[in-house]
Amino acid sequence: MKANYSIAIHGGAGTLIKGKMTPDKEKEYRNILQLALDESFKILQNKGSAIEAVEKAVIIMEDSPLFNAGKGSVFTADGTHEMDAAIMEGKTRNAGAVSLITGIKNPISLAKMVMEKSPHVLLAGKGAMDFARLHGYELENEDYFYDEFRYQQWQELKDTTRFQLDHSQEKDSKFGTVGAVACDINGDVAAATSTGGMTNKNWGRIGDSPIIGVGNYANNNTCAVSCTGSGEYFMRGVVAYDVSCLMEYKNLSLKEAADEVIHHRLPKLKGDGGLIAIDARGNIAMPFNTEGMYRGKKTAYNDSYVAIYSN
Known about the structure:
The chain has 311 residues and is an alpha+beta fold. It has a single domain, classed as (Glycosyl)asparaginase (Glutamine Phosphoribosylpyrophosphate, subunit 1, domain 1), CATH 3.60.20.30. It is 33% helix and 23% strand. The longest helix is centred in the first third of the chain and has 23 residues, at 23-45. The N and C termini lie far apart (35 Å).
């Protein structure tokens, strides 16, 4: 039986209060989210794979300066950009991830290259960059990643020991990690997640996004998950895999499992954020415990929308 192919995306969760953002800026966000949904959904409509669809959705968001991934990545304490990404498919549970990479226009595509062309799952730093060059990746100039808002955001924290998640400030700003989950016509699921990390981060800090089972996970028997939020708490809660475990071992539905993790388990660790998840029947869950989450979904049964706020 053919699956109800579907896709869901997110562009970060956090302090997103209606009225805090200008109408023009809100429209920009909605337009990019809709574009990412539409272009990735075309792949599923044309019997393409879930892995192709999630990569496409994330690339579109990485190419926009609106999100903290790819072009819009935040500045580190050294005034550079260190990006992380992960991708996973649910049929064989093959996965690829990269961390602490610089100059790569689309980190999610490099993560996919790691999955397809290496015997490893996660490559970081110099080794990941050597792998990128080996496979013909050309590095973008630093100017490509420069964004005035991101720069001013960094100036507020520069030369201090403080760092911040994008979603920690109540103002008209750009918010974190991007991700996508999809189910294709064959019932195969996949997940992809990409981020620029924390503003003013130091010491090679790595969050949840490139860690399989934490910020990204896919298993045809349960679900595919992409997370966004306070990465340290998502790591402590092994959040993406926790959703899958609740489905596998407690027989919870996708919605029940996702809600349990985001609304009950994560808050006990004082963690905030959200996730998007999909199962092999095309069901979608998008819970978050913050004021809002950039999100959207599109399904074969004409259920489609883009949203930002909790209501």
